[in-house]
Amino acid sequence: MVRINPEKAAAKSKLKTSDLQAALAVQKAAFKRTPYPAWSIRKARLEKLRDVIRAHEDDIKNAISEDFGNRSLLETDFADIVSSYNEIADQLKHGEKWMSRRKKKVELAQMGASAEIIPQPLGVVGVIVPWNYPLFLAASPMIGAMGAGNSVMVKMSEYTPKFSALFKKMMDETFSPEEVFVATGGVDVAQAFSGLAFDHLLFTGSTSVAKHVAKAAAENLVPCTLELGGKSPVIVAGDANIDDIIPQIALGKMMNAGQTCIAPDYALMPQAKINAFSDAMIKRAEEMYPTFAGNEQYTSVIADAHYARLQSLLEDAENKGATIRVAGNDDKQQLAKERRIPLTVVTGVNEDMKIMQEEIFGPLLPVMASETLDDQIGYVQDHARPLALYLFTKDAATKDRVLLETHAGGVSTNDTMWHISQSELPFGGVGPSGMGAYQGEKGFETFSHMKSVFHQSTGGIRHAIKGKLMAGIHAPYDEGSEKMVKMAKKQAGIK
Ligand code: NAD
């Protein structure tokens, strides 16, 4: 297996801050020339993006798999490629309508005038991409930004050097530097990138790095959308049937070997359910992956450092008294060589263990005893607001309580992950799991300035009436002015 050293791979990029600034200047100048690209231009860009992905499907799957050591080809096809096509199809279907001006009512006192909202492209949108779904997390913000009429600069992750280089080549061959610029490289390039005076910056990555990105963006007061992670809980309510819920949780935890921002991180359930849950999860994992080593359908952990981090979470939990169950019967050395970690259920956990403190981002599932719904809601609310929350119950009142009394970026009930795939649901976090949202219409608005415009009428009878009505707000104030203020208060419901 190819072992990637991200720093070494990143060192190949010779991009300097001045190169990035020059690329930004090119896009800003182009935007000045074409500040409001017609739908035909936006549509053509979206179609070109779709077509270049279509033409390179196999290259994309192979490059991402090489970067991971092994990445299930079907997972790339489904989660990176199909998801990108879906986003493009949605923009193509609705983008022209989303562009349209929206007429708004005017207040009575401004009778005769009119008001509207004009969605306007922002200019140049910066996008910083993580490694875990490297096509989708580059393409999805690009699609929203392009649909909204912007040009885009993208910084790829140093952990996916093969795919990053391929994506750069694909974009360079498809778009002019005025439309799309792709930067590869390491943290030094990322730091310089996050300090550029974009018109908007969308960062997808960890909460800790987001703090640096937000600080760098603040230098130029660049508005940011921060798409982050966190510990996404699974609440298993007392009424949930274990056999019914296992497939959904197993899929969420093992797709991409748990390296998904919205993967279930830990589970909360009554103690009496834990043994049955643990048995059933292990059984399900072994049905899905009869072997983990050598199995092309099971994704490897991205890098040695992440593999070591996950092993140290397990060691720490074991040293502090947790029980660890690993699915399958694979040779440990072989697994380590392939950087594969089978589903691992960790029970008897408590909050002193690192596994209950840090985002796991791997196929380890700690299960914590939590007896009542009050306890479960209390636990979630006492911890950092997560990106996702999963609730398993058949009871409508339980659903409502959890939905209304807990905070999370998004929720799936009786399933995991699928709220992310719904084109009419915005995607984003809350608090430390993110700021702002995008995808679908929300993405179009995130990458637009929704400009409020008031048009005064310039003549005719309506203007004359309006002029009389509004005379009171022009000094010198008199009785007529007081009458006008009284009238305005009455209109606002003040007696
Ligand atoms: P990361 O924060 O380490 O890196 C993300 C990007 O930031 C990379 O391109 C990297 O080069 C860049 N970067 C690193 N240091 C930087 C700095 N000092 N200044 C500016 N940029 C810098 O994240 P990762 O390991 O690539 O991805 C995993 C994290 O991303 C997890 O926390 C996961 O939950 C989160 N994530 C969130 C979403 C979402 O949509 N909310 C999606 C995928 C991943």
TrEMBL record:
SUPFAM superfamilies: ALDH-like. Residues 11-453 form the Aldehyde dehydrogenase domain. One of its GO terms (biological process) is aldehyde metabolic process. One of its GO terms (molecular function) is aldehyde dehydrogenase (NAD+) activity. The keyword Ribonucleoprotein does not apply. The active site is at E227, C261. It holds the Pfam family Aldedh. Keywords: NAD, Oxidoreductase. GO terms for cellular component: cytoplasm. PROSITE patterns: ALDEHYDE_DEHYDR_GLU. CDD domains: ALDH_CALDH_CalB (cd07133). It comes from the Bacteria. Belongs to the aldehyde dehydrogenase family. This is Aldehyde dehydrogenase.
